[in-house]
Amino acid sequence: MATERTYIMVKPDGVARGLVGEIIKRFENKGFKLIAIKMLQADEALITKHYEEHIGKSFFPKIVKYILSGPVVGMVWQGKGVVAYGRVMLGKTDPLKSEPGTIRGDFGIDSGRNVVHGSDSVESAEREIKLWFPEGVVEYPRVIDSIIYEWLDGTPDNEDKKNDGEVSNTNETSDHPSKSTTTTTVQEEEKESSKPNKDHPSKLCCFPLRVKNKPRKQ
Ligand code: IDP
Ligand code: MG
After folding, report:
1. Is 54 a catalytic residue?
2. Average pLDDT over residues 1-28
3. Chain segment 158-186, per-residue pLDDT in tens
4. Do 150 and 38 contact (CB within 8 A), yes or no?
5. How remote is the CA of residue 142 from the centroid of ligand 2, in Å?
6. CA gyration radius for the chain?
């Protein structure tokens, strides 16, 4: 569902190497939506809670020391399939086993300096988001979603589209533009639009349809 969320964190080595922008760019380019971001110096209690599944493992003290070594940039990204695909974008835990083109494959060598964290399941993501962003995330409609997602190209006609885009979606994090009181839906735009051809490419993009050309002053 387009409301799926993941916790992505640039680790201290990634921040120190100036990779924050590069990592944000990759998630933005893919089409995922940033709904929370902050830089912080995590303390031992927070890191221990974050990595609680690894308590007792040989590398646990090293990972705590690693994340304590400098500020991190925590982010919440939203979008259809963002948890699993976020992990694909990160690469494997060991950067030397990660494909080129992945973040860890392109920017890391050691597992203990693998630049970035990403939630490994929807459940972990929700737990980590609560842990790192107890203040919550920012919800806002994004007009480019009507270009990125097929479900906004007209009336949903199958289950997938229903799950992803119906206005009746009860998930509180729904990012369908129709949730906004100030945004009209593509369907409403079409009624108002003077373009009768339903298959016209301009139908894919609601933003230009809202722009009214003002006559130029001579
Ligand atoms: P993941 O980040 O790919 O989900 P996990 O197994 O959850 O990997 O491990 C958490 C983090 O602990 C890794 O990202 C890595 O930084 C570190 N880590 C995992 N295994 C090792 C290891 O064998 N040596 C050093 N650090 C490790
Ligand atoms: Mg993990």
Report:
1. no
2. 96
3. 444 444 433 333 333 444 443 433 333 33
4. no
5. 30
6. 21
